[in-house]
Design goal:
By secondary structure, the chain is mainly beta. The chain has no helices and ten strands. The N and C termini lie far apart (36 Å).
């Protein structure tokens, strides 16, 4: 068993970005916080499937060149090679849960 508390973990970019809650051995998952006007950064994965669940806020999910609105309760799943980015285009932060499977920490190609 493994136990973590979200408030004990840090965002990769200080006060926003990716915050991993569990890393391996079979999946990665955590929280993403995108502040108004920020973007996560376009990328894709060679082998990893990635799922996003919107907790709070509104924004845009850019997938393979197409924009999709993000609102609380939305779920998006990316297949390997789906190019994706997330933007917070409202006045409040956008908060999502992400799950990546299989665990492959080096399987990210930045665009």
């Amino acid at each position: 068993m493994q136990h973590v508390r979200e408030q004990d973990q840090t965002y990769r970019d200080g006060n926003s970005g990716v915050k991993y809650l569990m890393r391996g051995p079979r999946i990665d998952w955590g929280i993403i916080l995108v502040k108004p006007g920020e973007a996560l950064g376009g990328h894709y994965h060679e082998q990893v499937e990635e799922t996003f669940y919107v907790l709070e806020g509104q924004g845009i999910m850019l997938v393979n060149g197409q924009e999709h609105a993000l609102t609380p309760g939305d779920v998006y799943r990316m297949d390997p090679h789906d190019q994706h980015d997330i933007r917070a285009d409202a006045e409040t932060p956008l908060k999502l849960i992400f799950i990546k499977c299989p665990y492959a920490p080096d399987d990210k190609v930045n665009l």
